[in-house]
Each structure stands twice: as C-alpha cells, then as structure tokens.
Specification:
Elements lengths: L1 H23 L14 E2 L6 E4 L12 E2 L4 H7 L4 H6 E2 L4 E7 L2 E6 L4 E6 L6 E8 L6 E5 L5 E6 L7 E10 L4 E8 L3 E2 L5
Parallel strand pairs: 2-9
Antiparallel strand pairs: 1-12, 3-4, 5-6, 6-7, 7-10, 8-9, 8-11, 11-12, 11-13
Length: 191
C-alpha cells in the first residue's frame, strides 16, 4: 500500500514538472523569429572558440545548406565561402536547431559543427557540455549566413557530450535565445 502511494506521488510530481517546463521554457522553432532578444548566461569558465571554415576537399562530406545546393555546386570547392557552405556528413550526430542556428557532433574526429541559417547580424553558437566534468565550450560561427564552421576538439572516448545551440552577438560578446538542447551523444558514436 505504501509503495502504491509513492508511485502515484512520483507520477504526479513528474507531470507537474513537465507542465511547468512546457509553460515556462518553450523555445522558438528553427524557422520562427524571436519576438525579443533574451540574454542567456553560460556557466562560469565557458570558453568561446571561433570556428573555422572547412578546408576545400576536407572531410567530412559536402552537404551544403538545403537552400544553397546549386550555388555551392556552381562556386566549386576552390572558393573558401563555398567550402564554408559545405556541411557535415551523415556521421554527424545529435543534430539540433533553433532560430538561426544548427549544430551537430561528428564522433570520428570529435568535431563540433555550427551552422548559421539566418541573415540577422548574429552568429551561430553551439555549446558543448560533457558528462564527466570538463569545462563547457562554445563553437561560434562568424562566417556569415548559410555557412558551416567547425571546432575540432578532443573529448574522452568513454564520455558523452550534449549540444546547446543559440545565437551570439560578436559586438557585445553575449549569447541569446532562442536555444535548443540535444540529448546526450556518446563520444565514441556507439549508442
């Protein structure tokens, strides 16, 4: 009888927490423009790393932004802007998106991909958090709209990472909502 009461209380507490989180933390969809900028505070000690364009012909893959497939193909790989438009391959895990930003984690090489999808004067930012206590890091894409930037890191193979995508204002050094989180992604790529 006592266990039955506890399980009912657990279900009620879980449902209440879910309802509160749905009402208070509803992120904007990937294509939905935010009404106002809401600043996001990152954990103390978070390092901000400027992502770099992928080198022409570099792995992984060359999946351009969907709207720019013809433009990227016409520009060719010799153009650095076209190489920045080359996106992650299908080995990229934990794909997550919010207004103006896409991100994913490529387990072979421990590469964080940050894609900027909106021309709004803000940069795309992908935060990376671990489950083993490593300080958080943010990979910022300052290459412009419809580009991908990468940050090549080295994470513990037995650990997991979690991605957080948001917007970054380089003039003020501040991060803004909307934001979105991935689930935990195994660094070794094995689920």
């Amino acid at each position: 009888m006592r266990n039955n009461w506890r399980s009912k209380l657990s279900v009620l507490a879980g449902a209440s927490a879910l309802a509160v989180s749905a009402v208070t933390a509803t992120p904007a969809l990937a294509d939905e423009a935010p009404e106002t900028l809401v600043e996001v505070q990152l954990p103390t000690g978070t390092s901000v790393i400027e992502g770099s364009a992928t080198a022409p012909g570099a792995e992984p893959g060359d999946l351009p932004f969907p709207a720019d497939e013809d433009e990227a193909a016409a520009a060719g790989k010799a153009n650095p802007v076209a190489s920045a438009k080359a996106g992650p391959s299908n080995t990229c895990l934990g794909g997550v998106a919010a207004y103006g930003v896409q991100g994913c984690f490529q387990h072979n090489g421990d590469i964080v991909w940050s894609g900027d999808t909106k021309k709004d004067g803000m940069s795309a930012a992908v935060g990376v958090y671990t489950d083993y206590g490593r300080a958080a890091e943010v990979c910022v894409n300052k290459l412009g709209v419809n580009t991908w930037a990468t940050c090549n890191k080295d994470y513990r193979e037995s650990g997991n990472v979690r991605l957080r995508v948001l917007r970054y204002d380089g003039d003020t050094g501040k991060f803004y909502q909307p934001e979105s989180w991935s689930g935990w992604i195994p660094v070794d790529g094995k689920y």
